[in-house]
Each structure stands twice: as C-alpha cells, then as structure tokens.
Amino acid sequence: MSGQPIDPGVIELAGRVFDLARSGYTDELSAYVDAGVPVDLTNDKGDTLLVLAAYYGHAGTVAALLQRGADHRRANDRGQTALAAAVFKQSAETVQLLLDAGADPDGGGPTARETATFFDLPAMTALLDARG
Questions:
Q1: Torsion of CA 122, 93, 91, 112, to 10 degrees
Q2: CB-CB contact of 93 with 116 (8 Å)
Q3: Which domain holds residue 100?
Q4: Is residue 1 situated within a structural domain?
Q5: Other beta carbons less than 10 A from residue 114's beta carbon
Q6: pTM for this predicted structure
Q7: Which of 36, 81, 87, 90 is buried deepest, with most CB atoms within 10 A?
Q8: 33 domain-assigned
Q9: Residue among 65, 48, 58, 51 nearest 101 (CA)
Q10: What CATH code is carried by the domain that includes residue 116?
Q11: Please, which contacts does 76-81 make with residues 24 or more away whose CB atoms are closer than 8 Å?
Q12: Domain for residue 37, yes or no?
C-alpha cells in the first residue's frame, strides 16, 4: 500500500454496497456490480458480498452474485464460507443455490457440515449429505 488515505467517497460506496448485500437489495446491488464494483469485494472482517447475502438468507441476492461470478470458496477472516453462513442461518434455498454452484460442504473452517452438526441442524445436514 502507498499509505495514502482512501477517498471517503470510496469508503461510503463500499459501506453502501455491503449494506445492500446484508439487506437483500438484489437489483441495486447487481447494478453496482455490473457497473464495476468487484463481485468479491471484501470488508474489514474478510466478508464478501456473497457471505453477507448468504448469512442474511437472501437467496435472490446470492443467486445474482453467483451469476456474476462470485467465488463461493472464499472464506472470511474466521474461516467461514457463504455455505457455512447459510447453514448456520438454516436458509435451505440459499444452501441449495450454493451447493448447485459447486460450494464444498467441507470447505472452510468450521465447515458447513461441521456447523450443521455442532448446532444440531438435521435438515441442513440432510441437504449437505444429499450432495455428498
């Protein structure tokens, strides 16, 4: 890094984009990504837009980000993937979308499978097990 401060407008835009992912504003978020915001933009905790959308159970937003090339393998600073986040929140539709995109139930740490087991989420375990 050059040590130069980040433009406050850039910081404000990034904050807005992360809020859109958390809130499930799919159309607006998609427009920003289509206009050049990186689909794998990461916040200070390592959360990508996909991880945040998955954590908050916004299946439509997850689908839109995946269609735009979001990397479902990326983990945040605590090792959590979008799939593990969706499992934790018991969002079956989001879990299925991520699995269909090739997300690995044994990726990250704790993995999605470990998350389902630890929190005793049999419906999530069944979804993951159906995938292999």
A1: 60
A2: no
A3: 8-131
A4: no
A5: 15
A6: 0.94
A7: 87
A8: yes
A9: 65
A10: 1.25.40.20
A11: 76/42, 76/45, 76/46, 76/47, 76/48, 76/51, 77/45, 77/46, 78/45, 78/46, 79/108, 79/109, 79/110, 80/51, 80/108, 80/110, 81/51, 81/107, 81/108, 81/111, 81/112
A12: yes
The residue-averaged pLDDT of 19-34 equals 98
Structural contact between residues 115 and 84, judged by C-beta atoms closer than 8 angstroms: yes
**One-letter amino acid identity for 45?**
K
123 Cβ partners below 8 Å, 6+ apart? 90, 92
* Calpha distance 22→19 (Å, rounded): 5
Q: Which of 125, 49, 46 is nearest to 87 (CA)?
A: 125
Question: How many CB atoms within 10 Å of residue 109?
Answer: 13
Number of structural domains the chain divides into: 1
How many other CB atoms are there within 10 angstroms of residue 23's CB atom? 15
Within a domain: residue 78? yes
What's the CA gap between 69 and 94, in Å, rounded? 16
User: pLDDT tens digit string along 36-58?
Assistant: 999 999 999 999 999 999 999 99
